[in-house]
Every structure is written in structure tokens, then in C-alpha cells.
Design a protein that fits this description.
Blueprint lengths: L14 E5 L3 H5 L6 E3 L2 H4 L11 E5 L2 H13 L7 E4 L6 H4 L8 H14 L9 H12 L8 E2 L7 E2 L1 H5 L4 H13 L3 E12 L8 E6 L8 E3 L2 E4 L5 E3 L9 E2 L6 E2 L6 E2 L5 E3 L5 E2 L3 E6 L5 E3 L4 E10 L1 H9 L12 E2 L2 H18 L3 E9 L1 H8 L1 H18 L5 E6 L2 E6 L8 H8 L2 H5 L4 E9 L8 H11 L3 E2 L1
Length: 470
């Protein structure tokens, strides 16, 4: 069941070839690779900590996809360089390409990149770490969606599923990565509309009567007599010779002079209403909800690549903020706490007044799910613009969490903050939609109770502060 050669490719610590036979192995001149006939036997040959530099697959399509999914799910092999000898459904999403003469140099490049990785699960959650690592290690790699008509979402990301992100959660998860400025859209693949009730993409668009909403409608050829104004089906105007009005008996010889055809060319067979345009209803095939097409949830399905911040995080291990305010200085949370302590001491000595403002958006994930990323991003952009107009070059910004912002406003007493509140309160979506809430808390400086543990002081002070909610 297991056959293996005596040596390895010299530029890898370990390299394997998995195929049902060694025909491709010999044709590609890869006889130095360890050869396995199936996925079941080779994993036991390697310890959990052993690195596999290169894996080449030559398997039937379905078995190859299963093997690719297994390898990317594995904690041992998820970042291995994997090439296939022939394409399969998931090879574009889970493999690094089809083996060719250039593959060796690409694999060597990836090995070099792996040694330079700085991001790890202590900086970010595991799935984020894996995606950032994967896109940075493999030259030109992008995260591609796969089409699946069987799924409610219609599209899914095989790599994300291998790392524990469910298909129904992937769009919101990726939107979060874009908001953190770690990913950026590579290209728009499709735009999908989902049921507002169950979020399924299995929709049937049906023409209905605008009067009674019946689907039993059809085209209706009718005529309009100019002499008496009678409107009826065309067959009622037909006589033995030519056309004549069945109401006033006037012969109808010339269209536009004696008669015309009404604009209303459709009729409901239930209420007999004549109309021009039908109403379109999106009938959900999963939950049965009849959706107004204007209320469907619209989501863009994109391919993604690393942003500049994502590359820096992968290479240098630095955590970058997602809010970008050119008008103010931006620092990390540790620096922010140090600044607060320093400014608090200065304020006590020189009798100055400062403000610390904490702004957070609540129920963001649910909002994105209910309204779609386009609407959500519009709200986030408007929020950033409102805040940007309210802060100055001397103000300090710190993004503590993904949807939370800390501001230090020097020489700004609490009495001046209502101007900021008013600008934020003007955001239309915050007023009209209950799925998202903007909460603002403010603390005055100086505070004699501030301890050396500024982090703990800030947390406790914000917990006790009254929230201004919109």
C-alpha cells in the first residue's frame, strides 16, 4: 500500500506525491518525492510537528477535492504548498496551481516566506491568522468564492470553511476583515439577492397582478374605439369583413383615426384588471416568504487579496487599526493609556480640562446580515465622516476593538461635546433602523481617582459612565 523512494527533493525538508499510480510521478521526473497511494496511509508517517514543504496530488477529481479539503483542515498541513497534476472543482480554491516547470521556483519562494511569517494566533484569532498567512506566503494568492446552487448562500469560500468559518457567516466575516483594513476586494464575482426572512438565495421571481397579487395573469390584445370609447378584447371587434365596434357598430378602418390599442396589454384572470406592468415578487423556495424585490438583501460576492496593512501584519506581526482619520493622530491602546496618565497629571498640575470619548456601534453583525454589506458600509463611511468633521489635528484616536473608537480631546471640557453628539445624531440610518445603535460615553480629565493601572481605571470608569444612545 505504501511505496516510497530513498531520497527527497533537496530544497524541501519533506515532499510527497499522492497518486493512485506512479505514472505522473515518472512523467514529471519527480522520482525523488515520497510516493503514497492514498491519503489514509501517509499522515501517520509524519509527526504532528513535522513540516511538509511540498505536496503533489494526482487523483480522480472527487477524491482529489476530498484530499485537498483534508489537507487544508489539518493543523499540520494547512500551509503546505500543494500542487495538482490536473484540475478539479476545488483545486482552484485549495491548491496552489497545476504542477509545471515553474512550480519548483514558486514552492521555494513560499518556503522562504513561511520562515518570515510574524503573525500568529496570539495577535489575532486563528482563522484570521491562517488567511493572512496563506495569502502572504503564496505569491499571487487570492481568496476565491465557489458556486454551490445547493447552499442557501449560493456561494461559499472553501478555504474559510476549512478553517471553521461557516458559509452563512463568511460574507459578514470577510466584511469585518475589510473593515479592519486587512483585506481588500480583488474583483467582483457576482451580486446576489437573498430572502429578507431566511437569507436564502433560492428565489423565484414571479409576475403578479398589481391589484390582487394573483400570479394568474396573461397578455391581452384589446382595442379602443374612438367614437364611443369602448374598450374590449380584440376578438370582440372582429366582424365578417374588417373590424367594427361591438358597442356603437362603427366600422374601424384606420388605427390612430378610428381606434387604437390601449397601453394596458396584460390582464389578470382572477380579478380581470387590465394593466401595463406587473408587480414582481421574489418567492423564497426555502421558507415560502413572498419578498418585495426592493426589500431583498443585496450582497456582493467578491474575491479578496491582502491589503497593505494585511501584508504588514503577516510580515511584521503588528496589529493595525481599521479606522483611518487623517485629521487626527492615531495610536494603539497601550500608547493611549500612557497618554491618558500623562495628560491627567498635567491637567491636575495646570488646572486643565480634557475629555475622553468612547464611541461604539452595537449589533453590527446583525445589521450587516439583515441589510447587506453595501448598506452597512455606507453607514460606517458616514459615521467616519461625521467623526472626522468633529475632531482636530491635536485630537488622538485609538481603535480599541473593531467597532469601538476612543478619542482624547485635549482642552475640551464635557460641556463642548454636545456639538459632536448632534452631528452623529443626524445620521439617518441611526434614526430609522433599530438593528444598530450608536453608544457614546464621555469621561472628564483630570480624575484624581486614576490609578497606575490606567487600563483598569478606564474600563471601570466607562462601565459606570452614562451612555448617550441613538
Amino acid at each position: 500500500m505504501l511505496e516510497q523512494s530513498k531520497s527527497h527533493l533537496s530544497f524541501f525538508s519533506s515532499s510527497i506525491f499522492i497518486a493512485e499510480n506512479d505514472k505522473a510521478l515518472k512523467s514529471f521526473g519527480l522520482t525523488e518525492l515520497l510516493y503514497f497511494k492514498n491519503i489514509d496511509s501517509f499522515e501517520t508517517e509524519f509527526s504532528a510537528k513535522q513540516h511538509l514543504g511540498l505536496i503533489i496530488l494526482d487523483l480522480p477529481a472527487q477524491k482529489q477535492d476530498e484530499t485537498l479539503a483534508f489537507l487544508r483542515q489539518s493543523e499540520t498541513f494547512w500551509l503546505s504548498t500543494i500542487f495538482v497534476c490536473q484540475a478539479s472543482s476545488l483545486s482552484t480554491h485549495l491548491a496552489n496551481g497545476i504542477w509545471s516547470e515553474q512550480s519548483k521556483s514558486l514552492a521555494e519562494f513560499s518556503e522562504t516566506r513561511k520562515k518570515q511569517l510574524a503573525v500568529n494566533s496570539t495577535l489575532v484569532e486563528t482563522a484570521v491568522m491562517k488567511l493572512l498567512s496563506y495569502l502572504w506566503v503564496f505569491k499571487g494568492a487570492t481568496l476565491l468564492p465557489a458556486k454551490s446552487p445547493q447552499m442557501q448562500s449560493l456561494y461559499w469560500y472553501p478555504l474559510l470553511q476549512a478553517w471553521g468559518i461557516k458559509p452563512e457567516d463568511s460574507i459578514n466575516w470577510l466584511a469585518s476583515m475589510v473593515r479592519r483594513n486587512w483585506l481588500e476586494v480583488d474583483s467582483l464575482v457576482n451580486r446576489v439577492r437573498y430572502c429578507q426572512s431566511c437569507h436564502s438565495g433560492h428565489l423565484n421571481y414571479v409576475d403578479t397582478c398589481p391589484s390582487c397579487q394573483s400570479i394568474d395573469i396573461g397578455l391581452k390584445a384589446s382595442l379602443h374605439c374612438f367614437n364611443c370609447g369602448h374598450v374590449a378584447a380584440e376578438h370582440e371587434f372582429k366582424q365578417q369583413i374588417g373590424l367594427g365596434c361591438p358597442n356603437c357598430s362603427k366600422p374601424l378602418r384606420h388605427i390612430g383615426v378610428d381606434y387604437d390599442r390601449p397601453i394596458e396589454n396584460q390582464q389578470c384572470n382572477s380579478c380581470f384588471n387590465l394593466f401595463v406592468d406587473s408587480d414582481v415578487v421574489a418567492d423564497c423556495m426555502d421558507c415560502g416568504e413572498k419578498n418585495d424585490v426592493n426589500n431583498l438583501i443585496v450582497q456582493s460576492v467578491n474575491s479578496y487579496k491582502l491589503s497593505a496593512n494585511g501584508r504588514n501584519l503577516a510580515k511584521f506581526g503588528e496589529k493595525f487599526n481599521s479606522f483611518m482619520f487623517d485629521q487626527a493622530e492615531k495610536i494603539n491602546f497601550t500608547q493611549f493609556c500612557w497618554l491618558l496618565q500623562w495628560q491627567n497629571n498635567l491637567a491636575l498640575r495646570h488646572k486643565q480640562e480634557h475629555s475622553v470619548v468612547y464611541i461604539t456601534m452595537e449589533n453590527v453583525e446583525q445589521f450587516i446580515q439583515d441589510k447587506g454589506e453595501k448598506v452597512a458600509f455606507s453607514l460606517f463611511d458616514e459615521l467616519e465622516q461625521r467623526i472626522a468633521k468633529s475632531i482636530r489635528l491635536t485630537d488622538i484616536c485609538c481603535v480599541q476593538e473593531e467597532h469601538s473608537l476612543l478619542l482624547f480631546l485635549p482642552l475640551t471640557p464635557l460641556a463642548q461635546l454636545p456639538k459632536i453628539y448632534q452631528k452623529l445624531n443626524e445620521i439617518e440610518l441611526l434614526q430609522s433602523d433599530k438593528n444598530i445603535a450608536l453608544s457614546i460615553k464621555a469621561l472628564p480629565l483630570p480624575d484624581k481617582s486614576m490609578s497606575d493601572d490606567v487600563n483598569m481605571w478606564l474600563f471601570e470608569a466607562l462601565e459606570q459612565a452614562r451612555s448617550i444612545e441613538f
